[in-house]
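Design review, sub-item: ligand-bound model
Attendees: FS, YL, KQ
YL presented the inputs for the PMV complex:
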Amino acid sequence: MTVVSAPGKVYLFGEHAVVYGEPAVPCAIEKRATVTVEPRDDGHVRVEAQDLTLNGFAVEYADSPASGPDVDVPKPLIEAATGYVDAAVEQARDAADAPAAGFDISVDSEIPLGAGLGSSAAVVVAGIDAATRALGEPLDRRELADRAYQAEYDVQDGQASRADTFCSTMGGAVRVEGDDCSRLETPELPFVVGFDGGAGDTGQLVAGVRSLRDRYDFAADTVDAIGDIVREGESLLAAADPESDPSAELIGELGELMDINHGLLSALGVSSRSLDTMVWAAREAGADGAKLTGAGGGGCIVALDATTETETSLQYTPDCEQAFRAELATDGVRVEDE
Ligand code: PMV
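KQ shared the predicted structure:
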């Protein structure tokens, strides 16, 4: 039995603009998806996904998922639970040169689905790592990140940047610009996350921004301006000592950039009433800055606040279903048991 976990993430800056080659800075957080893999001899794949915010179910199917698993659960739910796992299995089989390998897989995730916290990337990263290890062919991290990106790209019909999968693999704060990905050394930032209980449709939201950008030069300028925010934020982070607590001045400056980043995302049509309400609740509670994280449309916001005020205030905000402090996950993908 091989057990591997991988973290979710928040975007400090840069979602959506990263799709058009601007840089982005996602940060891994200590909310993990854990995947357990046991090879089996018959080439079948059995997936148990108890915590994918679906009512727990298990499905078993043979080599061709095209025919679909034989269970009485709506197709979109099956696809949500198994699409990413299937793609991870395909990548693992290919990497280990074992096209007929079968697995019992169970997925346990603390990360809400489709809420901007990188749940699918974490499942794919942990899944590929666990399956290749179970086959005796562990991958180095660069190849793992690459294959996880490929898996997401396939499932999302090409609407994926490398940001989520690279961040989940490497941990910490990372910088992604096109195919160029690297880890950033940053101090621990006081992230607070608010979750509205909903989810956005990433494909639709990305398409919406693309359409605005194609129609209006000022929308294209807005996307470019998000890139400028990221570059500004990066230079602040580069000047900070990663070993010390961040100064109040640094948190204040990063927060200001997050606020502007949220305003620009909102201008591009990807915020929502509940995301805006949570952002304003955080700001009014004294957060240094707050923005939506991920594709938007619903899901999560991220705020910076070293005090407990923002978390408490979000807990009493009707549009917020869950609020929590999120520590930077320095580890990335991690073997829990082998
Ligand atoms: O909501 P998430 O975690 O899937 O993030 C989407 C981020 C986008 O920049 C909108 C798309 C991408 O693949 O980078």
